[in-house]
Amino acid sequence: MASINDIKKSVSAISSLKDLTSVFEQVASIKMNQIRSEVVERKAFFNDVWDVYSNLKLMNKSYRQEQKDRSALILICSSYGLIGDMNNKIIELAKSDITDRSDIFVIGEKGKDILQTLGIRFFKSYDFEDDVKEDFVREVLDDIKDYTDIKVYYEEFISVSEQNPKKIFLNFKDYSQKFNKKDYSEYLFEPSFKEILEYLESIMVSMMFTQILYESHLSQYAIRMVMMGESSQKASDILLRESLKFSKAKRELSDSNMKVIFTNFLNKHGNRI
After folding, report:
1. Beta strands of 92-242 (E only): which ranges?
2. What are phi and psi of 85, to 5 degrees?
3. What confidence category does residue 185 fall into, taking pLDDT thresholds of 50, 70 and 90?
């Protein structure tokens, strides 16, 4: 049976763990709320614009003249822990697309470590900081600008308690295989659809990639907040049990001391009573 000092140390350690998980939960909650509204509100807009962009791309036959026999796979993982198996899910989703013609770009130190453990070679890795900076977005997009087949894998934010690994195509050889084609041929475009497409081409990929990075951050914070909340609750439950055990041990020790004192008293004064 554990001594009262051992139980006291256990209570202290669990109490510290509870405080730590609570702090992590609060930090994740603050970070998540800072970007959640913006990401959710922009998501529907980006989906609509991306649908128009992709179908206009179908109308521009020039993309079929592009020749590139390699594809770029961008895996957006995390640079920090405490996010469960998110990184593993993203890598697992990308595995089916990895061939000898794939160049893998991994964002996040943890994703890089997992790929190295699995023996999967990657072309380049990047650190994933808390803030999505324009220079970072430009660096990644400059690295993959010559690819005609670009896939991005990341954790999509559904709700605070639900996130799913997702694949999205930034640029690719055969658009007709990726979207339900819509016929814009009877629409009147002002300026021409090619000029509109050129404009969208200049900003769309950057906008979408930035959105994906923010959403990946949002998912990571949501996962961390939920995990830390669950850990804090478990620590509270254990702390309650250990505290009760400590109180019981203190009572038993107090009772034992009283028995010793009473026994000594009887032995010394019993004949006089």
Report:
1. 102-107, 124-126, 149-159, 162-171
2. -100, 25
3. low
Q: Is residue 265 part of a domain?
A: no
Token digits of residue 235: 């620590």
The answer to whether 217 touches 136, Cβ cutoff 8 Å, is no
Query: pLDDT digits over 27-42, tens only?
Result: 667 777 777 777 777 7
Residue 79 lies inside a defined structural domain of this protein: yes
CA distance 47 to 35: 18
pLDDT tens figures, 240-258: 777 777 677 777 766 676 7
β-pairing verdict for 149-159 and 102-107: unpaired
The Cα–Cα gap between 97 and 90 comes to 12
Q: What is the DSSP letter of 52?
A: H
Average pLDDT rounded to a whole number, residues 257-266: 67
> Can you give 216-256 as a three-state secondary structure string?
HHHHHHHHHHHHHHHHHHHHHHHHHHHHHHHHHHHHHHHHH
Q: What mean pLDDT is reported for the chain?
A: 77
Count, in order, helices (H) and strands (E) of the chain: 5, 5
Strand, coil or helix: 50:
helix
**Residue 241: inside a domain:** no
Q: What is residue 91's predicted lDDT score, i.e. its pLDDT? A: 96
pLDDT for 2: 60
Residue range(s) defining the domain that contains residue 164: 18-229
Structure tokens at 31: 């970070």
Q: What per-residue confidence (pLDDT) applies to 60? A: 63
